[in-house]
Amino acid sequence: MDKAYKVGRKVYFNDRLKQVFFHGKLTYPLYVQMTFDRKPIYFKSYYFELFSKPRYVIFMDGKMYGPKLEDIVKKEEELIDYIVDKNQSDFSLDLFKQEYAFYSKDLCDVMEEGFIEYLFVFFQDEGMPALAYYRTARQQIPNPV
Question: How many structural domains is the chain composed of?
Fold first, then answer.
């Protein structure tokens, strides 16, 4: 008879590392610890890295408003729970890492290159090549931020 192992998870701020800026506020990076069969794995939170990007901040009234860290922790826990529940019968840490990498992809990042190519062709076909070249030339210039 196989012993059923419990899957443990902990989403925490790694205070062993140097603090980083998260939309203007200093905080420790968010990490995840998964434990199964008495074997732990540690990895950086994908959602913390994703929502740290400048495109997820809104400027209103001269202030920066970014996602709340509590919401990021909640999203991380929801994803972990979903993967664990989905693979309850044949769970392993290797399978978890694969599923985590698959389900935590940002679709905007995945589709961005294809969309830029589509815009280039669209503007060319519509007789506005200046807009097509402006966009592709702008893509080559590094962001000054």
Answer: 2
* Alpha-carbon gap, residue 23 to 118, rounded angstroms: 31
| Residue range(s) defining the domain that contains residue 31 | 8-105
pTM of the prediction?
0.74
Q: Which residue in 75, 65, 91, 74 sits closest to 8, CA to CA?
A: 91
State the first-to-last Cα distance of the chain, in angstroms, to the nearest integer: 58
Q: Each residue of 11-27: pLDDT tens digit?
A: 999 999 999 999 888 99
**Do both 88 and 110 map to the same domain?**
no
Strand partners, 65: 58
Q: DSSP H helical segments within the chain, as ranges? A: 46-51, 69-86, 93-103, 107-125, 129-140
- The structure tokens listed for 124 are 């060319």
Q: Are residues 16 and 56 in the same domain?
A: yes
Identify whether 14 is part of a domain: yes
Q: Name the residue among 16, 52, 11, 17 with its Cα closest to residue 30.
A: 11
- Is residue 78 packed enough to be buried (19+ CB in 10 Å), middle (13-18) or exposed (0-12)? exposed
Cβ neighbours, 10 Å, residue 133: 13
- DSSP assignment, residue 127? T
